[in-house]
Hints:
Layout: H1 2-35, H2 45-52, H3 60-70, H4 73-85, H5 91-99, H6 105-109, H7 114-122, H8 124-136, H9 138-154, E1 164-169, E2 172-177, E3 182-188, E4 217-224, E5 238-241, E6 247-250, E7 253-254, H10 304-310, E8 329-330
Antiparallel strand pairs: 1-2, 3-4, 4-8, 5-6, 6-7
Helix pairs in contact: 2-9, 3-8, 4-7, 8-9
Amino acid sequence: MKLYRQGIAAFLSWCLVLAAAGDGLASPQALPQAAQAPQAAQQSPEQLQQLVAPIALYPDALIAQILPAATYPAEVVEAGKWMTQHKDLTGEALAKEVDKQSWDPSVKALTQLTAVLANMNQNLAWTSELGDVYANQQQDVTNAIQTMRQRAQQAGNLKTTPQEKVRTQGQSIEIEPATQDVVYVPQYDPWLVYGYPLAVFPGWYPYPGLFWDGPGIGFGLGFGIGFFGGFGWGWHNWGFDWHHGGRVMYNHNAYFSHSRTIVNRNGFDRGGFRGGGGGREGIGNSRASDGMRSGAFSGFDHGGVARSNSFRGQSSFGGFRGGGFGGGFHGGGGGGGRR
């Protein structure tokens, strides 16, 4: 009987050992799954449409400048401050001084259209979000812009005028200025112009000169771009290729941001051409492992601080509102009015 009991005890002990060993072998298999980083959240088509609504009806070359510039929100702020400090500079003198700055070419380009740069500075949360989706969902952004253009066209609000040309090429709607030396930025309410109301981006505040109070489109500000033609970042160096994945084109090459601020969650370097601003960290060198939130403005929680300040209609860095830049000129004759 004693030997029987000892045998049972030994058997049970081995069972416990084997069970513990089994748990130990199973746990390494479970660890990788638990340690896997969550998949990056992708913006839905509706969210993307809301994000691009304020710019979808802009000329193609202007969108090609805005999207890369949005991945440099800190430089947008810096350029905004610089512009307010140099209001006396215009034309070629302004272009020469801008050329000396270390900003990305896309940010430099926006100094040609001061109200657009001011609007991006004023609405930093929106700018940061726009830069994030451009870096991570480029094709989806292109689709969203084309969707909104189609809806505006169906609503009767997008057509050729004395200020711009609208044409359809294949499945894409293209927009370009009517003249070579003056760009008119369309004025519209981005939440009404597409034929049905859209939800307003949280904290988004309309910038004077770019907003039209009503469902149609108007034109007021015309910006002379001839003075910037001799510089590599000038207007005529930018374009948008709608037919090959919706690429921003700069000097006839695909152009990709290498921002330090916006994280490319895909985790690879997309290469491509870029100019100026050497030393910036490529967005392919993901900093997500360092705890930086994708799309976050440096030191911000995904634009959270910027959201609260942009709601008051000002940049979170003490920028400007209500014509703080000036610039541009009112188009005469048929330049204004609703269509």
